[in-house]
Amino acid sequence: MVAFSGCTGKRPAPAETPATGLPAPEIVKTPGDSDRTNDSRLAASHNITVQGYQLLQKKDYDGAIRVLERAVGVNPGNGPGYFYLAQAWLEKENFQLAARFNEMAIMYLRNHPTWSQRARAQKEKIQKRKNNASGT
Amino acid sequence: MLRKLLKWILGLGLVMLLVLALGFGYCLYLSGHIEERFSGRRWEIPSTIYSDTTLLFPGKQVSRFALEKKLKKLGYQSKPERPEKKGEYHPGDTGLEIYFKDLHLPDKDRQGFSAVLEINQGQIREIRRTGSDEPLPLVELGPEVLMQFFGKERELRRVVSIEKIPGHIADAVVATEDNRFYSHFGVDPVSILRAMYTNLRHFSIRQGGSTLTQQLAKNYFLTPERTFRRKFHELFITLTIEAKYSKDEILEIYLNEIYLGQKGSAAIHGVGEAAYFYFGKKVENLTLAESALIAGIIKSPNLLSPYTHPEECKDRRDQVLRAMHEQKFITEPKLAMALEDSVKTAGFEKYNRRAPYFMDYVSQQLDRLYPEDILSSMGFSIYTTLDTEVQAAAENALENGLARLEKSIPALRRDDPEKKLQGAVVVMHPRTGNILAMVGGRSYANSQFNRITRARRQPGSCFKPIAVAALLDKFKPSDPLSNKKATYQINGKPWTPKNFGEISEETLSVRDMLRRSCNRAAVDMVVRGGPDTVVEQIEKFNFSTPMRPYPAIALGAFEVIPLELARAYCAFAADGVQPFPLSVRDVVDEDGNVLVQRYMNIHSVISPAKAFLITSMLESVVTDGTAGALAKQGITFPLAGKTGTTNKFRDTWFIGYTPNFLALVWVGFDNGDPVKTTGSGAALPIFADLVKSIPGHIAHKPFTIPPDVVKEKVCRQSGELPVFLKCPETYEEYFLKNKQPQKKCPVHGKDSVFKKAVDGFTNIFK
Lengths: 136, 766
Fold this sequence. Notes:
CATH topology of the domain at 40-134 in chain A: Serine Threonine Protein Phosphatase 5, Tetratricopeptide repeat
CATH topology of the largest domain in chain B: Beta-lactamase
Strand order of the largest sheet of chain B: 11-1-15-23-24
CATH superfamily of the largest domain in chain B: DD-peptidase/beta-lactamase superfamily
Radius of gyration of chain B: 36 Å
CATH architecture of the largest domain in chain B: 3-Layer(aba) Sandwich
Distance between the termini of chain B: 157 Å
Largest interface: A-B, 47 and 52 residues
Helix content of chain B: 25-40%
CATH class of the domain at 40-134 in chain A: Mainly Alpha
Order of helices and strands of chain A: EHHHHH
Oligomer: heterodimer
């Protein structure tokens, strides 16, 4: 039987590294959607993403993750949501999960030049931090 | 004589001294016990399991009836006028005005506020804050209580400190139960004499002389037996408590300890719990009249309950109010105002275990974290992913679906409850892995076996998409597969796969093989692709049951655990990413400290492009394949799905999904008796009922096409690029970018004799 545990962990104290320079959230259309900026789920998900972003700014990474999970639950095509999730996991130094969420961010932000660039830069940052942590 | 008297006095003195010394020693001995109880944890508080919260936002589809039902379950009260207090709502012509309660969650602390929800044609049109008219993009309703981990006492209690208990509740209790509480030393001789006089006058026990401290000693330390020994014990405990603790401390313990009513099989203890039980609010928000009511029912909680004996309850409350006035706790105008108040209760549902199979699943996980006695005593709050609306819809759909099936096929009926036709449903959010609903069987009372998490059943054709996903590097969706009758040698024995229904075509594309669930073509694909490759690729899907490299793997011959099958399908719905199924999210202690948090955890199984191809093919199953019946049932939003039926109709399945919703339905007999119909006939209608009853949970959005997918026109027969004017039938198909058709249709593109001659002549001069 698979260990249906999800990712378990006790809440640690906020990390020292600040999550500065994070771009503010904005509604980014899901690739392939013609005109969905008025979509109710998109708006609701965006609103939750804003809350997640604010927690991320306050370095409450656990709180941010919980809120952002909800945001991508409401709109699974929420690119910025995945971007911030990757950021939160990066701050918690879980590089594997950070990389997985970054992949989702890259996929869902691919049609937005600025966000797409941010997601690719985030990928490099994750790799760099991972390398630093492993001493390679 | 004098010497004799002196001797007597001395002897008596010595005896008295001895008694005093013994009494003192006994008090000292008790003091240790009392201190141990009082300084440590005083009460066993059951841990509570909660559902997920509910999000409301403009555009969300909601049934007004379901929303009101939800509000009532959360203890909201309907009002004919605008709501004035937290926990009230007013159903208006165009929607609901709700005064939201405070929300205290591990990651959220929200104060209650009032807002208007405009609902039109089953959709929330707008949410506006009352007063300011500020539009709100999102509001959240609190979680519902699903279960409590009771110890053997089955007591419900919310411990509150004396600082939080309003003065008037303490005054009411003192006025009515022990008006000399602040002046006696634990035992009140005046009160005892008064009680004796009253009882003698009426020749019956009309009044008791017990002080609050004596009642506490009785309830907290002793059994209810009426013996001299117990009375003696009680006296010493009372004196010791009074000597060691302040009056406020004693009152605090008393107000948290006292029995105040019954909620089904669970006992309500303490004013904190009683405030919620009777009035749906925190103790600090109780009014004077409400406090007097609670103080009044201490005398006989069940005979004076506002739920069962409202008139007697009001009389008693008024008695308490008058006693408070007589003893100068309240003024005349306050008394008059409080007496004017009618008795308004919050209403309650009897404690009832909900979503029992899910609760078992959650309990198993909690058991790994905490022993049972901790869960029944430490008052943890356990937040889960369960959505009560989806759970109720899944339970109803299964119950109705199985009953319908038995009605249409009488041979499926069984008298023995343990042998009845069974079914199971699990609903997941494919992206996050959240388990939204779990129904592990038809009746928990008859069978606690959870068929979602513990059964091992053959998945039948539901396994075909997984086999296709494993071979997408070798086969394109348009590639032709053979539907010719073929016999394979398996371990030296011949095996001839058969189709369920008549499929006359000699070849079918991979898409059509899935759409029509063609067994022969599926086996042809696995045999040509290599059963070893299939097994190797399937490992990524995290099945815990063994798979062997036999051609029959294409037909779902190897048993799987239904939850693992649902999880495998999540990868198709979520861009190739498989989530861990989540049920427990947070465990929080009484002080709000988060002890455990579980997060969404994802794992890449196949590429987003491959996941999309599978989804696209499974959309065909729904639009014009074996699940075509869904459209007839009004399900027209983008949906992918697959039916499944095993040999001799032992198992019937349907798995359907959108980008944010996935449900698996299984129907069968535990002993393997035939269901006598297919997945389309047995499981699909249950799925249809389920999704139709929860429109707000399904985003009617198309699946997102990933970057590495291209669309090409191909010849239907060959699956390759069509030859202009030659291929009689073409269609558009999705392909992986690196595996799109390169060659022209070999079936219709054969060169004519004239073209061959021209080409040959041209080549001479090259």
